[in-house]
Design a protein that fits this description.
It is a single chain. The protein has 390 residues and is α/β, with parallel strands linked by helices. It has a single domain, classed as TIM Barrel (Alpha-Beta Barrel), CATH 3.20.20.210. The chain contains 20 helices and eleven strands. The strands form three sheets. It has a seven-stranded parallel β-sheet, sandwiched between helices. Strands 2-3 form a two-stranded antiparallel sheet. Helix 19 runs parallel beside helix 20. The N and C termini lie far apart (49 Å). 47% of the residues are buried.
Length: 390
């Protein structure tokens, strides 16, 4: 039991005004499974943003699980989005690969609002392979932040979800094999090696896959059994070309094949510049229900409305589309411009499939509060079913 969770449950349970005819949980579940919700859900990946919104610094919460959880719940209580994204930083993902004495030199804490930076933990492909072959991730897991911070924070939020009678879902995610493989060595090196050393890359990806499949057992044991139902696959392979997707894309598919046996509502996170072929692969990837996609690739000559419409037609009858506005727009554009892009996204998407207002990546800590509020307000204004936008 968590005191911080009980404090919020005591304050909120039975006092919240309903938004629409559905609960947040019901609205997300309907959209994921291509059933018309009462209104288009709005579930931005607030992640780092909610920490500073709640009045904390990133350095302050880095080693304080209760403050991290408090920030997430406070943000939701104020804004009433349709999901709560747990806070995640890169140390949660890779610290268990690193000996304790080397961790301080791997991660870079900058300003109070800045993301945690990191240095690659392997310079060569052989070094990266050795990390997996020696199972460094098992050797160093015990005192890593995956155990000391990530897991307690996840469990606190799931406790809140359950004590609130599943009014709002907690969004928890795991990196896919391609994401992990790229992160450890840097994306540009990884992509080069897919061309120069494809046999070694295949071996490396198979090792990453086995570790990632084992991680799903953790998410089932500590997540699903404590109420986790909305699971996010943080995909890599975002800069792979068509040949690389064909040659190596199976590792992520095999990851999803297991994930879908464990979780009923699966989102695929695919940020950055999106190749049409990558989008087509995701549209046909069995087991995922919603796709959080981002900007078109540089060579794709489409307006935003055309891009939204193209994706919606691609996903029709298969996947829920999650997008708009971009994280850059939330950080730098005006509330009026954010309202317009959301209006365009809903108008272009909902004739073909269900939609979720969800920028393609996490909201920047420097994004103005008024822009985040504008995103939520626009979703509620234009997203009411039946959709009727001029």
């Amino acid at each position: 039991m968590s005191e911080i969770v009980d404090k919020w449950v005591e304050r909120l349970k039975g006092t919240l005004e309903p938004i629409g005819k559905m609960t947040h949980w019901e609205r997300m579940e309907a959209a994921y499974h291509l059933r018309p919700p009462d209104t288009v859900p709005v579930a931005p990946e607030l992640d780092y943003w909610q920490i500073t919104y709640a009045g904390y610094s990133h350095k302050e919460i880095y080693n304080d699980v209760d403050k991290t959880t408090d920030a997430c719940i406070k943000t939701w209580a104020d804004l009433r989005t349709d999901a709560i994204w747990m806070y995640v930083d890169i140390s949660h993902q890779i610290e268990n690969f690193i000996p304790p004495e080397k961790r301080a030199s791997t991660f870079v804490h900058r300003g109070d609002k800045d993301y945690l930076l990191f240095k690659p933990i392997a310079d060569t492909l052989d070094e990266a392979i050795a990390l997996y072959e020696t199972k460094a991730y098992e050797k160093y897991i015990g005192d890593s932040r995956a155990v000391t911070h990530y897991t307690p924070h996840m469990l606190q939020l799931l406790e809140f979800q359950e004590k609130m009678d599943r009014v709002v879902p907690i969004m928890v995610g795991a990196a896919t094999p391609s994401n992990y493989a790229e992160t450890i060595v840097e994306v540009q090196k990884f992509v080069k090696w897919t061309i120069t050393e494809p046999k070694k890359i295949r071996h490396y990806l198979e090792l990453a896959l086995q570790e990632r499949l084992a991680s799903l057992d953790f998410f089932y044991e500590y997540g699903y059994k404590n109420g986790l139902r909305f699971f996010c696959c943080f995909g890599g392979a975002r800069t792979w070309g068509p040949k690389q997707l064909e040659q190596f894309g199976d590792v992520d598919r095999r990851f999803v094949e297991k994930a879908k046996t464990l979780f009923p509502h699966i989102l695929w996170h695919h940020c950055g510049r999106n190749l049409p072929q990558a989008m087509e692969n995701l549209a046909n990837l069995d087991g995922i229900h919603a796709i959080q996609y981002d900007m078109p690739y540089y060579t794709v000559q489409m307006s935003w409305f055309e891009w939204f419409e193209w994706a919606a037609k691609l996903f029709a009858g298969k996947k829920c589309a999650a997008n708009a506005p971009t994280t850059q727009m939330v950080a730098y554009n005006t509330p009026q411009e954010i309202e317009q892009i959301i209006k365009d996204f809903i108008r272009a998407t909902t004739p073909h499939t269900t939609a979720i207002i969800m920028p393609g990546c996490e909201i920047d800590s420097y994004a103005p509060v008024e822009n985040v509020r504008a995103m939520i307000a626009a979703a509620r204004k234009y997203g009411r079913y039946p959709i009727a936008i001029d």
